[in-house]
Amino acid sequence: MRKIYTLMLFCTVMISASCSKFLEVKPVGIIIPEKTNDYELLLDDINITRSFYSSTIFTYDDISNVTFSPQTETSIDANLYFWKTYLDVNSQSRPAAWADYYNNISNLNVILEGVLSAADGTPQKRKQIYAEALVARTFPYFHLLSLFAPAYDPLTATADLGLPFVVSTDQNVPLPDRLTLKANYEQLIADILTAIPDLPTQNINKSRITKNVAYGMLSRIYMSMRDYPNALKYAELVIASGNAVLLNYNDYASSNDLPQTNVSPEELFLRYSTNSRYRFSNELLAKFDPAVDLRMKLFTATDAGVVSFQNANYNPNRGITYAEIYLNKAECLARSGAVDQAMDVLNNTIRINRIAADAYEPLEAADQEDAVSLILLERRRELAFKGLRWSDMKRLDKEKRMQPVVRYAPNGTMVFETLTPGSLKYTFQIPLQTQLFNPNMKLNPR
């Protein structure tokens, strides 16, 4: 009979104060794995649908929501949408996003602590599961950093605060101090590099880790650090595998029926979330040509003139897509001065597969800066609502490429809130419950 493993990361004021020593989240009901297969089942359980993988979407400049009001709304989604200091305003509430991601991390730590000494299985299999868990753990940490730590800046990263890096499942181990942002990123990179030799080139499904997934995660991390040479290096390793395929949307425009995410060749690493409908902001909508851009046909629904991101038949992947990898390559090439090569990737790999064949024309860049701008615009269109825009907004804000983001009232003219360039609102505060149980934790400037 299959064993069930749960780490209930929930703690309120009513729970013993000992909970304060480890992220205000107390594991209960743990069944300790013993066999290699037990650890692999736990790894598969961790990979099932998680709604919190889309937790940052309400922060995006992609989105508009006319039902929210900053004066009366206290939901987590609205707090994200208006970039309020806290995601939740009740110190007795389970910390939004924070608890979910650390729950994910704690389950992976169970694997990392025990699988190498499992009672059976080959040494190679045990090492593979360990390596997969090591890479998988970088994904929730990446999202935690995007929410609760500032954008990476090499000039300040040794002083900027990162997050506690938790490696133990022992309830008696105190919560570690927040690392510096530089140390956090170095740890994530080191974990992936450590794992790569023991990872397979193919795996049983797209929610499991392969060498390509590890390279893709490294490319994403280096992009967020604005280390474009290394981001390019790992994007090219993914592409060199020969697996980096983009679908030609012309083949699906008439049926509006894309391959399911779990079998689509476009997906590198699957992390599902709820297939919710998100209304386009007018600013994002203006960046598409709906007459020729097939993404508008395949990934939008229109109701009473309101355009939203959704395809009811397609569960969106908020992990890593091959389109992201090609966009990383194009942007990094452009930033290095290889404009012709960058535009070749943009036109002949990405846009030719996204624009109606009878209307397709390649874009031309006047110079290096124009190429970067065109690629960033395509990145905005291609990755809309895919789980990465908040990280992109933060890194581009560091380069002074972000314009003010405005939240309007339902009348479309009254301004409720503005996210200005350089704003401290790009970083959310450590949750109130975490502060309550960890009073010495350093907080973010806000």
List the helices and strands and how they pair.
Layout: H1 36-46, H2 76-81, H3 98-114, H4 123-148, E1 161-164, E2 178-180, H5 181-195, H6 211-224, H7 228-240, E3 267-269, E4 278-279, H8 282-285, H9 294-298, E5 300-303, E6 306-309, E7 320-321, H10 322-336, H11 339-350, H12 368-382, H13 389-398, E8 405-408, E9 415-419, H14 432-437
Antiparallel strand pairs: 1-2, 3-7, 4-6, 5-6, 8-9
Helix pairs in contact: 1-3, 1-4, 3-4, 4-5, 4-6, 5-6, 6-7, 7-10, 10-11, 10-12, 11-12
| Strands side by side in the biggest sheet | 4-6-5
- Average pLDDT works out at 90
- Poorly predicted parts: 1-29
**Count of strand segments:** 9
Q: Strand-and-helix sequence, N→C?
A: HHHHEEHHHEEHHEEEHHHHEEH
Give the CATH level 1 class of the largest domain: Mainly Alpha
Distinct helical segment count = 14
State the secondary-structure class: mainly alpha
Q: Enter the CATH topology name of the largest domain.
A: Serine Threonine Protein Phosphatase 5, Tetratricopeptide repeat
Percent helix: 25-40%
Q: What is the overall silhouette?
A: globular
Strand content: 5-15%
Q: What's the number of structural domains?
A: 2
CATH architecture of the largest domain: Alpha Horseshoe
